[in-house]
Backbone:
């Protein structure tokens, strides 16, 4: 994580030295985790840039990066870093994806508010998601079956969960799969037996977050690295950004942009 932070800081320093180009339209696509940040910053940016129209959509980190590779979006939102094979595909198509770390996130396991469980270890979460633990009583809860809810494989949130919790093991085929953070919140809120996981910006009173290894996910524990399921959130451009794309990235990384990051529930990088 430290190496990535240094690299992104260097990129920001270079970005600040590049001039503006003509105004126009920007397409921003990708991660549903980053979606609230992208929507809120785009709205604020357009208030002071009346000649710029920014369209923002979700669809998952993988789809956003694919759009960068294909040249069908200007900025890709991602809740994971780009994979080597994706970089190779982009370069083969004549473009090099440039990453900008724009926020930090704590990926939270969540359950129904009525669930008496408050804390799970990484090992317990892994065994729940691989199907080895199937009853809440095995982790200190009621004698009820666990309804496991996961994300689709195009999701950067799924990739982070697989890396940090499943440790490359596969999730149980019995797990229900949803397409976004919002759908995850809605599904868990409606099922007293469910467990899922969301970016911290989507947390609300309809679900209850669980501590992991005794550490609650928060801005402080994510920034310090103490929380074991923390990560960077990114925006990628297709080559070095210019014009409106550069101005928008710089705005997201500015004091005003980072204040918006905090207001959306995520963790500013500064």
Residues:
């Amino acid at each position: 994580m430290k190496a990535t932070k240094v690299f992104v800081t260097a990129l920001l320093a270079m970005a600040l030295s590049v001039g503006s180009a003509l105004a126009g339209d920007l397409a921003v696509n990708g991660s549903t985790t980053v979606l609230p940040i992208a929507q809120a910053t785009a709205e604020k940016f357009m208030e002071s840039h009346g000649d710029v129209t920014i369209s923002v959509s979700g669809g998952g980190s993988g789809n956003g990066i694919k759009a960068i590779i294909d040249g069908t979006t200007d900025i890709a939102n991602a809740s994971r870093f780009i994979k080597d094979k994706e970089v190779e595909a982009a370069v083969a198509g004549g473009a090099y994806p440039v990453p900008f770390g724009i926020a930090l996130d704590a990926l939270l396991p969540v359950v129904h508010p009525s669930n008496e469980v408050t804390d799970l270890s990484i090992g317990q979460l892994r065994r729940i998601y691989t199907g080895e633990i199937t009853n809440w009583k095995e982790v200190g809860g009621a004698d009820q079956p666990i309804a496991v809810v996961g994300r689709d494989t195009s999701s950067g949130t799924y990739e982070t969960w697989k890396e940090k919790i499943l440790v490359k093991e596969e999730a149980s085929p019995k797990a229900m799969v949803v397409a976004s953070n919002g759908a995850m919140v809605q599904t868990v809120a409606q099922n007293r037996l469910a467990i899922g996981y969301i970016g911290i910006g989507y947390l609300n009173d309809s679900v209850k977050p669980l501590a992991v290894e005794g550490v609650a996910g928060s801005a402080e524990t994510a920034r310090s690295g103490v929380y074991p399921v923390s990560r960077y959130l990114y925006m990628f451009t297709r080559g070095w950004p210019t014009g409106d794309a550069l101005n928008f990235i710089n705005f997201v990384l500015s004091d005003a942009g980072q204040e918006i990051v905090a207001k959306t529930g995520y963790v500013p990088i500064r």
Summary: Confidence is low (pLDDT under 50) at residues 1-22. Residues 102 and 234 are 5 Å apart (CA to CA).
